[in-house]
# Entry
Amino acid sequence: MSFQIIHLLLDFGLMVLIWIIQRIVYPSFIHYGTENLVGWHKEYIRKLNPIVIPLMFGQLGIYIYQVVISVTAYTIISLGIVLVIWISTFFQFVPIHSNISKGKVSEKMLRSLVKKNWIRTLLWTTLFLYSMVNHSIA
# Structure
């Protein structure tokens, strides 16, 4: 399998995953009572992490590799988008998920989770489309 196909599959996989999370998973959190949400959330994180972590590390690795082998506007902008997603994930979303797991839940926080996640949803969508155009597959 070619490098470009693997690259596009990682981008596509993360884009589809974030749309499912954004449109189905996160909005569903509001329908749980705190105790049920905490229990479900721990299970959700346990099951989702083995999917998300390899995809995110794979994507980061590919974009770093691209910059190393060829510094272009495309590789720099793409790596920049990935880095913004990582920063957003670790400084915004990891703390929110940590609070949910600890039972520190409010309707306002859950609505904020959905609202803030639109940034990552749009960034991963933009990154996939940008990659498609740059790999002449669009």
Observations:
- The chain has a mean pLDDT of 94.
